[in-house]
């Protein structure tokens, strides 16, 4: 059987499912899992209804579980502009289907005070940031022939502990500088994937600069109608293993049709053929 190949604006991608790489962190409801912002761990329990028990180990006729999860804090998730607007916009409504070329880049975060870039008012000089300078350098080094609509950022060092880390512990996670977020918009990146818990500083008094810039919202705006990029998506808490090289891939961003601003997601990368 021949390997399925997709031609996309001059690039050829290997669509063999066996070669797809998932960037989603497996969510273990009973074991180690990542966490953020003090949210409780994701949990599951057997459904109890009348005389029914949704656990075959407890005598139930079948397994039926109730899941408790905070998508923004319990693992790999994709979010839309509704994350910061008063209007209850949803991922399925705003983003829809995502299948596009995406560039994977590895970035060493820099200290804010060693760069000439900026962040929220509460930023400190020792904060770790993803800078425009680093992004532009990685992008130009790879020189993608096909303009990528997606960008996957893998921070270095690429500690496997990212998959189960409480991100409110020290050291604080990196975030995107104001200039980096604007540069991504200028490059036409519509789908941003990062291995941090947020593209913004955890404590920024609600400025959410990178989120607002990426979705084309004025500072502190909460109005969906003011967004110039409501179709864009941000996926956080991914994990890109070291076995996956920097370069151009086809991104298949999969998520359920929940009517919420953020959903658990499964980003898949298909390599070039």
Shape verdict:
globular
Order of helix and strand elements from N to C terminus: EEEEEEEEHEEEHEEHEHEEEE
* Category by helix and strand content: alpha+beta
Q: What would you say the CATH architecture of the largest domain is?
A: 3-Layer(bba) Sandwich
Going by CATH, what is the homologous superfamily of the largest domain? Answer: Putative cyclase
Offer a concise description of the structure:
It holds the Pfam family Cyclase. By secondary structure, this protein is an alpha+beta fold.
Feature tags:
about 270 residues; alpha+beta; Glucose Oxidase, domain 1; 2 domains; nine-stranded mixed β-sheet; three-stranded mixed β-sheet; 18 strands; about 25% strand; globular
Describe the 3D structure.
This protein has 273 residues and is of the alpha+beta class. The protein has helices at residues 91-94, 132-142, 178-186, 209-214, and strands at 5-8, 11-14, 21-22, 43-46, 48-49, 52-53, 65-68, 77-79, 98-107, 110-111, 128-130, 150-155, 175-176, 191-194, 233-236, 247-254, 262-264, 266-270. The strands form five sheets. The chain has a nine-stranded mixed beta sheet with strand order 3-18-16-9-12-14-15-8-17, covered by helices on one side. Strands 10-11-13 form a three-stranded mixed beta sheet. Helix 2 (132-142) packs parallel to helix 3 (178-186). The longest helix has 11 residues, at 132-142. The protein is globular.
């Amino acid at each position: 059987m021949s390997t399925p190949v997709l031609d996309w604006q001059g690039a050829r991608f290997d669509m063999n499912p066996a070669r797809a790489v998932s960037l989603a962190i497996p969510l273990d409801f009973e074991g180690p899992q990542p966490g953020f912002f003090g949210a409780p761990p994701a949990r599951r329990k057997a459904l109890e209804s009348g005389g029914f028990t949704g656990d075959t180990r407890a005598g139930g006729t079948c397994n039926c579980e109730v899941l408790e999860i905070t998508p923004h804090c319990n693992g790999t998730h994709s979010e839309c502009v509704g994350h910061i607007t008063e209007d209850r916009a949803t991922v399925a409504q705003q983003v829809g289907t995502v299948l596009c070329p995406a560039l994977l880049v590895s970035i060493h975060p820099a200290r804010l005070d060693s760069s000439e870039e900026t962040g929220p008012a509460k930023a400190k000089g020792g904060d770790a940031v993803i800078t425009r300078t680093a992004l532009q350098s990685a992008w130009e080094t790879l020189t993608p022939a096909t303009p990528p609509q997606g960008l996957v950022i893998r921070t270095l060092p690429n500690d496997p502990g990212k998959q189960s880390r409480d991100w409110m512990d020290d050291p604080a996670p990196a975030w995107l500088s104001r200039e980096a977020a604007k540069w991504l918009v200028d490059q036409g990146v519509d789908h941003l994937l990062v291995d941090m818990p947020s593209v913004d500083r955890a404590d920024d008094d609600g400025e959410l600069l990178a989120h607002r810039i990426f979705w084309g919202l004025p500072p502190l705006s909460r109005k969906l109608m003011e967004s110039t990029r409501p179709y864009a998506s941000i996926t956080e808490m991914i994990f890109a293993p070291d076995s996956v090289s920097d370069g151009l891939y086809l991104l298949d961003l999969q998520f359920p049709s929940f009517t919420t601003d953020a959903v658990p997601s499964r980003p898949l990368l298909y390599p070039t053929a």
